Amino acid sequence: VVARAGIFELLQDLYKVISFEEGEKILFTLPISGYFIQQCQDREIDVEFLNTDMQDGWKINFVHLEAALQKHKIKILFLNYPNNTTGAVLTKEEISLLADILKKNKDLLVIADESLREIILHDNSKSISLASIDSIAAQIITISSLKCYGLNNLDVAFACLRSKSMLAGLFSETINVSHVN
Fold it and tell me: How far are the Cα atoms of 29, 42, 80, 103 from residue 38, in angstroms, in the given order?
């Protein structure tokens, strides 16, 4: 089965079903593709940014994250982690710290871009998926294009289905699919 429902189409559908109250925003960790921002602007969804920089290895400053979550009404946190094309990969300890912050913000929906989740690290270990932490798994939508397998956005569609079976879900759910073979 080849399913091509790009992340932008899936996010468009997600933004249609999630209602944003006055002042609620999406917090994006940077760097991020400008199209994610444009998509929010097209839907008149307010955004905030959490900067990262080379000195910190492009990783989130957790103090800044907590401050942003307290200062703004954040409905969705869009993480370009835990493995990022900038080369930043969060450690198990950093994932744990991030999970602790998310546990304190139970109403926060998190979109975690794990496009390189199959990456093998320098010590032959794999990166850790944020969604693998049971206590916050219900808050996480994982997106990934599984580029290393050539399966464009297959697991993105799977992550958005309510069905536990991919095939059953594809035949029973109404999803935005641009191409299926």
Answer: 15, 6, 17, 29
